[in-house]
Design brief:
37% helix, mainly alpha, 6 helices
Length: 150
């Protein structure tokens, strides 16, 4: 079991991408494209996706972390399942095989993959009890790695 897709996996999943890539194999959307999206409305963005054949690109019930702020970047996604000790042990073991150090929290693993200009998008299944995905320290790590300062 792999926790994070490898370079070959990412290149295979995004085989139609013809532009520059990060060393990890992730497509690197040009900064100029990201900059132009800062002025696009949601409807305009969906329109371009729809015309390109991506007709099911909507997910509702998002929670804004900075209401009223436009956030544009290369999405890095993660999903955290409700905690189950047996599953957690398997994930920790798989993470160790991928080089994650003992004691590292799983929420830091996705942060380690972030590049300048990325936006971290995380599904936490509505988790409220015992906090969120990031606190002060990990939030600072996200800001440092992505070049975003608030």
């Amino acid at each position: 079991m792999r926790i994070q897709p490898g370079k070959d996996d990412l290149e295979e999943l995004t085989a139609e991408w013809t532009g520059e890539r990060f060393g990890s194999g992730r497509p690197r959307v040009p900064d100029e494209v990201l900059e132009s999206l800062k002025l696009a409305t949601t409807e305009e963005a969906w329109g371009h996706l729809f015309q390109a054949g991506y007709v099911r690109q909507f997910a509702g019930e998002w929670r804004e972390t900075h209401p009223g702020t436009v956030i544009v970047g290369r999405a890095v996604t993660a999903q955290f399942l409700p905690h189950r000790p047996d599953y957690d042990a398997a994930i920790v073991a798989a993470g160790a095989r991928e080089g994650h150090m003992e004691g590292d929290r799983q929420n830091s693993w996705v942060i380690e993959t972030l590049e300048n200009g990325d936006v971290m998008v995380v599904d936490i299944f509505g988790k409220i009890v015992e906090g969120t995905v990031v606190g002060d320290n990990l939030g600072t790590a996200v800001a440092t790695r992505t070049g975003v300062a608030r």
